[in-house]
Amino acid sequence: MEYIGFIPHRTLLTKGTPMATYPDLQNKVAILTGAAGALAEAVIQRFQAEGVLLALVDRDQGRLEAKFGGVDPAKCLLVGGVEISDKAKVSGAVEKIAAHFGKIHILVNIAGGYSAGTPVHETDEEVWDSMVNSNAKSVFLMSGAVVPVMLQHSEGGRIINIGATGGLHGGKNSAAYSVSKSAVFRLTESLSAELKDQHITVNAVYPSTIDTPANRSSMPKADFSKWVTPDSMAGVIAFLASEAARDVTGALLPVTGRA
Questions:
Q1: Catalytic residue among 22, 114, 177, 206
Q2: Of 43, 239, 54, which Cα lies nearest the Cα of 158?
Q3: Cα–Cα 20 to 30 A to 242, which of 16, 29, 31, 125?
């Protein structure tokens, strides 16, 4: 069931909130998908510092409420229960966000999934469909729903996608994931070519391994100092969302630390 809610008054996140860098982001409206995840948390902190109005989209209503319950309803809207590979769910969520804020200036497609470990001939169709749906179809549907809103208010816009190094080339035992992330890159390039004359920029940021609790738990012997911090990713995303990046579009930007 889809959930639309307002967050009661409090600050979103207080840990290490950065200083504002891009004054033009003040009062811009941004949609973030996968909003209950670790990377989104850093982006939310950064956007909050910049004065961005937030619409936080996730399929897990409970995690959204537990993590973000409590800010000014004029500044943040929770949109839970949204399966972003479902066109009807996506369309409904975007319509409600646009109705609440009036405009949409920024879309950050963070939601996605990861599965690997089997060769192509042993990969289940369900795994293939899951990777394509969560990583590629989600970007296709969210962009398709948001772009008409951006065009309607004629103020341009920013679409920022999250790719992966695995999308640059195929690798052993990771075909489904690699194909899905490669599709994100091609969607980024196609959308950029289609929308640049309407002052809507479309770019992708691709990390190596992001330093999250889940990744540390699954790879305890790795050298965490070589990984990309969520805050570093958030800084690049904030730049791409800002007027400073007005002439950057169709870019596939590596944020790979020392990996």
A1: 177
A2: 239
A3: 16
> Rounded distance, CA 230 to CA 211, Å?
7
With left for phi above 0 and alpha for psi between -120 and 50, is residue 154 left, alpha or beta?
Answer: left
- Does 177 qualify as catalytic in the annotation? yes
Residue with tokens 């004054």: 23
Q: How does DSSP assign the chain, residue by residue? A: --EEEEPPSS-S--TTPPPP--GGGTT-EEEEESTTSHHHHHHHHHHHHHT-EEEEE-S-HHHHHHHH--S-TTTEEEEES--TT-HHHHHHHHHHHHHHHS---EEEE--------S-GGG--HHHHHHHIIIIIIHHHHHHHHHHHHHHHHTS-EEEEEE--GGGTS--TT-HHHHHHHHHHHHHHHHHHHHHGGGTEEEEEEEESSB--HHHHHH-TTS-GGGSBPHHHHHHHHHHHHSGGGTT--S-EEEE-TT-
CA-only gyration radius of the chain, Å: 17
Domain range list for the chain: 3-255
* Whole-prediction pTM: 0.91
pLDDT in tens, 85-122: 999 999 999 999 999 999 999 999 999 999 999 999 99
Burial environment of residue 56 by CB neighbours within 10 A (0 to 12, 13 to 18, 19 or more): buried
Residues 198-246: tens digit of each pLDDT = 999 999 999 987 877 788 888 898 888 888 888 999 999 999 999 999 9
